[in-house]
Amino acid sequence: MVVEAFGYTGSASMPNIEKSSRPGKTAPRLLADLYHYDISRTSTNALIDFPAHHYDSKPDRAAFPSPPHSHILLLKNEQSDLISHSSPDTRKRYIVAAVCQKCRTHFDVEIEYPRGLGTSLCGRDNKDFPLHHFQYSESFSGVFQGEHAPGSRELEDKRAFKCSSPVCSASLCITSKIPMLDAKTKQLLDDRSLYPGRAKLAEQEFPSEDFPKYYPESGQFPVPLPPSQPAQALRALHAYLNNCLHDIKNGASKPIHRRNKRLLHNMGYDADQIFRKAHYKLDIVGDDPKGIWKPPYLSDQVRADIQDILTELKILSQQPAYRESGISYVPPYADKELQRLLACEKYDTTYQGRSSAPYEFMPRYANLGAIGDFSDDLLIWCFKRQIAVDKQNAPYYLECLMDFATGRKSEALGMAVATYRSEGYFSTSDVRDAYKALNLDPDKQYEPDVIIGNFRAHVSDAPRSEAQMRQALLMIGTSMNSQAIVQAASKGPMNVSQAYEYFGAPSEIEPSFLISLYQIKIKDQPSEESAAKDALRLIANKLSSNILTDFLVSGNVYDQPLDVSMAYSRLEADPNMDDDSLIAVYQIRLGESVNIEDQRQALIVIAESRKSDVIRTFLQRGETVPGTGRGVLIQGGRADWPVGLDNIGNTCYLNSLLQFYFTIKPLRDMILQFDLYQEDMNEEILQTKRVGGRKVTVNEVEHAKKFVGHLRDLFQMMITSKDASVKPEAEFARSALGGSKEETKEDQEKRRLSVDAPPPVVTLDDDLDTKMDVDNETSQTIDDGGSEITLVEKFDTKTTDEDFVMIDSDKKDSVFSEDKENLPPRAEPTANAVRPVLQDIGVDGAEPSHVSETEGPQAPPTPPPETHDHPPPIPPRPAPKSTTKHTDFTLGRQQDVAECIENVMFQIEAAIKPEDHDENGEQVDLVKKLFYGKTKQSLQLLGSNEKRSKIELFSHLLIDVADGSRDIYSALDSVFDVTTVNLEGKDTIRYLSISELPPVLQIQIQRVQFDRTIGKTYKSTAHLKFLETIYMDRYLDSSDPLLQAKREEAWAWKREIVSLERRRAGLTNTSVGLDAPQTLDAVRSWIEEINDSEDKDLLGDAPLPELLNGLDTGIKESTEELNEINERLEVLRAKTAAQFEGLANHGYRVHSVFIHRGSVSFGHYWIYIYDFKEKIWRKYNDEYVTAVTDPREVFEHLDSNNPATPYFLVFVREQETERGMVEAVQRRIEEEETTVMKLD
C-alpha cells in the first residue's frame, strides 16, 4: 500500500519527517513549482530540485527547462478536507485534492502538524516566520506502489517536506498521479473511426427487431444503425460510473451486462478497459456467455479512483468534441484553497505588485526559495533561512542577494549585503576574486596542495601581501570545505582538538573507529590525505596509541579484519565487476609495484564474500578454469585478452582509434607486413601520387613511412607483449595527432598557402557551381610546389605560449604534459565526410529555399563569428614554459576526432603503394577499399526534364543531434532526404543516395553545436538510439521505381510534418506562455471579470455578447485545429517510421562505439568494441580493457546529467563479420617469454 511506504495508513497521521540539511523553498515558491511540475520528466524535478548555480546575471537564463504548460488546477471537493477557518486546527490533517484541466494530472497536497497544540504557525502574523520554509525529505519520498486497479495508474509519486522553522512542525506531502484515462484509453473515446464498427457489432448482437427501424425519407427499406458519437459515448460512460457511486441498493449498485445494447452501441467491448480501471470484476453467470461487470466494493481508494475517472470525463466534456454530451460541469479552481493550506494567501510584495516575469526566467529567486514579487524584507528573510539550513552554499546565496540589490536598486538590500559582509560572509564573486588574487583560474578545479603551493609561492615573492593572500586562501578553503587549506591559511599549526574536529569525531572515540574515519576521509577526498595524516599523527602522539602509530607506519590495521568494501577499495575495483574482470584488475595492480600480499588478501576477502569458485581457483592455481590454462596469470596481462594502450598525454582518443584499427584484420595484416606494401621512393612514381585530392610530396611520403613503421612496431607489441598495456612512442603519437618534425619552414609556408586546395572528390558543400556543370574536370592539378598540408590541418598550428591544454590528473608519466584530455569534434565537418543535405547548403551561389516549407526563398541563417569555428580553449594554467619545441602539435594539445582519423588514414595511404587509380588520378588502395564508399548526388531543375548527377567518395557519414534525441534512421534521413536550393534564381531539387557501400561504414555524430543567442559553442548530449544491426537499403541508389516512390512519399510526409509543426508552434508558443485556446479563454475570463467589477468602464462601448461569442468561436476553432494537427502528426510519424520496413538486404552490424564524457572544452574518450567470436563487448579505456556485463552501457548512455555519449560509430557489413574481417583478439605470447607468478 502506498501510504505504508510513507509510514502511515488510512487516515492515520503522516510520518514524522526529519528536517534535512538541504536548501528550502518558501510556500509560494513551492506552489509556483507545483504549477509547473511535470511528473513525466526524469532529468529535473521542479518540486525538489534547484537551478544550477551560475556566476553571471543574465536575466534570460532558465531556472528549469520550460514545462509543457502551467497547470490549471481544479478542486476535487469530495476528496479534499479544507481549512474552514482563518487558521488551521493543528490537531487535524488537511488535504487539497486537485486535477489539472489541461493534462488531467492529479495532485493531493496534505499538511499536518505532528506537534499539535504546541505548534507555532508560520504566516503573515508571525514576525519571525512570515512564510513556511519547506525542506525536501528524501527518506519519505519517491515512487511507490498503489492500490489502483491493474492497468490503471499503479504508481504514485510522493514528495515529503518539512518546515525548517524550529517552532513549526508542519509536515507537507505532495502526491502526483497520472490520469486514470491515459492516452490509449482516451483514444477509445476520441477515435471516430471506431464507432461504425461498434454500431455494426450492436446490430449483430441484437436482431433488427430489437432496434427501431431507420428509414430514409425517400424509401421504406431499413438502413444500418447510425454510429454513435464521442459525446454520446462519454455521456453513457459517465452515467454508468456515476450510478456505481450513487445508485446503491442493498449496499451495492446494479451490475452491467457486457452484452448491453447501449453499451455496445457507444463503446463496444472497448468499454472493458475502462471498467477494469474502475475496479469492476467480470463474472460469467447463468446463460450469458459474455458475462456481467460486477460493481466493486467502495473502499476509500476505489471510490477515489472512480471519482477521478468521473472528474476526467467532466473535464473532457468541456472540450469541443464532447460539448454535446449534456454533462453540466462548472470547474471550481483550487488556487485559493492551496494558498490557504500553505499559509501564503497574503505576504509582503514589491511595490509593483505581483511579478509577471515568466516562471522559468527567475533562477536566482528559485535558488533562494523565493519568487519575483517578494518584498525586499522578505528576500532578506529568505537569505537568512537558506544560510541557516545550507551554510555550505552561503556565498552563492549572498551573490543572489547582491544581484537583487543591484537589479532592484534597493537601499534596503544593499544595506543587508553590507551588514552580512561585515559579519564575515562572502559571495561567489569574492571567491572568484580570491582565486584570481592567487593567479588561479576560478573556472578550474585544483587540488588543495596546488592551491596551497601557489599561495606560498606568492607570499614568498610578495611578503607584504601576505595578509591579503592569506584572506584569499581562507576564503577558498572555506568555500571548498577543505580543512587543509583552512589550516594553511591560519598562522598556527593544527592542535589536537582541531584534529578531532577535522575528522568530526569526539575525543573519546576508539582508535579503530578513528582509522575508519581517516580511510573514509581520504577515499572521499584523496587530496586531503596529507592533512588527514597530520591530524591522525597528532592524536596518535597525544594518546600514545600503538594502533594509530602502526597504521601510520605500515598502512595496516592488525587488530581489525579487512571488510569487503575496503577490499574493493584496496584493489580500486568496482563491486559490480564480474569475476573475470575483477581478476584482470588484480593482475594489473600487481604490475604497478604495489604490496602483493595486501592485494592478495583483498582478493581473498572478495572471493569469500562472493563465494566465487572462479576466484578461489585462480588464487590456488593461477587460472580461472582448472586444467584449461584460461586466465593464465601473466605478469600484468592475459594471453586471451586484448592489450591496453597507455595514455601519454591527451592521447585517449588516439588510443581508442588504434584499438579500432587493430581489430580490422586486413588493415592490421597490411601494417604488420608493411615492407611488402610500402611506397617506392621513386621520383617519377611520386610525381603522380595523389591522396586526398592532391599530390603528396616526398617529405610527406618519408614521414608517412616512418609513421607506419612505428604503427607496425606498436601492433607487434600489442600482439606479443606480456604486459596488460603497452606505451606508444611519443614521436608516433605526435605524428598521429598531426605533427611532422621533418617539415621545414618552407614546407610550413606551403602548408599555410595551400590550405584551401580542393580535393579530387567534392563534398556536398563544394561541388555545386552556379552552372551545374558536373561533367567538367572536378579538380585542379597541384604540383610539388603546392601543398604540404594533409586534409585535416585546417588551422594555424604554430606553437605559442597560448597553446591550450587540459588537465590529466590520473597520469603520472605524461611525456609532454599532464593535461587531459581531448577536445570533442569541431563544429566544422571535415573534407571527406558526407554532410547533412539540409546543413550549410548555400555555397557557390546556391541558397536554401526550402520551398516545401515556405512561400518563397529564405535568407540563410547568420553565420557564427569566425572566432567560434572551433570549440574555445580553456585558459592555460600557470606553468613553466617547456624548452622543448615541436613544429605543429604537442601531445598536450586538444585534438579533434575526425581530424585525428583523417590524419592517420592520410599517412597510411601516403606510405603504401597504390593498387590502382581512379578517373581523377586518386590513389586506390586497401584503405579506400575498406573505409570509403560512394554517394550519388542527384540534381533536377524544377520545371525542366534535365537531370544531373555526380559521384563522390566519402569516408564517413556526418549526422546531427542538434535538435534533440533521435534514432539513427532519423539522423541518416537528414543526410539523404530531398531538399530544394535556389540556383541561378531557379528552384532545384537535390538529394543524395549511396552508389557504393564500403565494407566498414563509419558514422560521425556532430555533437559540437553553436548557440547564436550566447555566441558560444556547446556539446549536445542528446541521445542517439542505434541498434545492433542497421539496414542501408533505403539509402541506396537504385533504378527500382518502387523504392523511389517510397522515398518520394516519405519526403512528402516529412514536408507535411514540418509544415504542421510550424503551424502548431504558432498556436502553442505565445508570448504569455499559453497556447491559443488558453490565451483566448484567459481573455474571455478577464473580460467577464472586468464586466462584473467596478472597472467595467475599461471595456468601453464594446458589444459584450458579440465579443464573447467571437472568443468562444476562436477557442473552439483553435482547439479543433490543434487536435487535428496532433492527430495528423501522429499518423504521419507512424507512416514514416514504417515506410521502409522489410528492406533488409544490406545489413551492417555495429562493431565499435567511440565515447566521450565531458563538455565542449574538456573530457575523456574511450571505445567499446564487439568481439564477434566471443560475442561480448569490451571497454577499451586507455590501459584498461574490461568486459561489459550489461550491453545497455554501450547503447543507452543515459546515466547522468552529463552522460557519456557516442561520437563515432563503426558498422561492418554483415557478411564480413562472418568471413572474419574483424578480429578483436590477436595475441601470440611465447611460452619462454611468459612469466607465471606463483601465488601460493
Automatic annotation (TrEMBL):
<dbReference type="GO" id="GO:0043161">
    <property type="term" value="P:proteasome-mediated ubiquitin-dependent protein catabolic process"/>
</dbReference>
<keyword id="KW-0833">Ubl conjugation pathway</keyword>
<feature type="region of interest" description="Disordered">
    <location>
        <begin position="730"/>
        <end position="760"/>
    </location>
</feature>
<dbReference type="InterPro" id="IPR028889">
    <property type="entry name" value="USP"/>
</dbReference>
<feature type="region of interest" description="Disordered">
    <location>
        <begin position="814"/>
        <end position="886"/>
    </location>
</feature>
<dbReference type="InterPro" id="IPR044635">
    <property type="entry name" value="UBP14-like"/>
</dbReference>
<protein>
    <recommendedName>
        <fullName>ubiquitinyl hydrolase 1</fullName>
        <ecNumber>3.4.19.12</ecNumber>
    </recommendedName>
</protein>
<dbReference type="Pfam" id="PF00443">
    <property type="entry name" value="UCH"/>
</dbReference>
<keyword id="KW-0645">Protease</keyword>
<dbReference type="InterPro" id="IPR018200">
    <property type="entry name" value="USP_CS"/>
</dbReference>
<dbReference type="Pfam" id="PF13446">
    <property type="entry name" value="RPT"/>
</dbReference>
<keyword id="KW-0788">Thiol protease</keyword>
<dbReference type="InterPro" id="IPR001394">
    <property type="entry name" value="Peptidase_C19_UCH"/>
</dbReference>
<dbReference type="InterPro" id="IPR025305">
    <property type="entry name" value="UCH_repeat_domain"/>
</dbReference>
<feature type="compositionally biased region" description="Basic and acidic residues">
    <location>
        <begin position="740"/>
        <end position="754"/>
    </location>
</feature>
<feature type="coiled-coil region">
    <location>
        <begin position="1108"/>
        <end position="1135"/>
    </location>
</feature>
<keyword id="KW-0175">Coiled coil</keyword>
<dbReference type="GO" id="GO:0070628">
    <property type="term" value="F:proteasome binding"/>
</dbReference>
<feature type="compositionally biased region" description="Basic and acidic residues">
    <location>
        <begin position="814"/>
        <end position="823"/>
    </location>
</feature>
<dbReference type="GO" id="GO:0004843">
    <property type="term" value="F:cysteine-type deubiquitinase activity"/>
</dbReference>
<feature type="domain" description="USP">
    <location>
        <begin position="643"/>
        <end position="1214"/>
    </location>
</feature>
<dbReference type="GO" id="GO:0016579">
    <property type="term" value="P:protein deubiquitination"/>
</dbReference>
<dbReference type="InterPro" id="IPR038765">
    <property type="entry name" value="Papain-like_cys_pep_sf"/>
</dbReference>
<keyword id="KW-0378">Hydrolase</keyword>
<dbReference type="GO" id="GO:0061136">
    <property type="term" value="P:regulation of proteasomal protein catabolic process"/>
</dbReference>
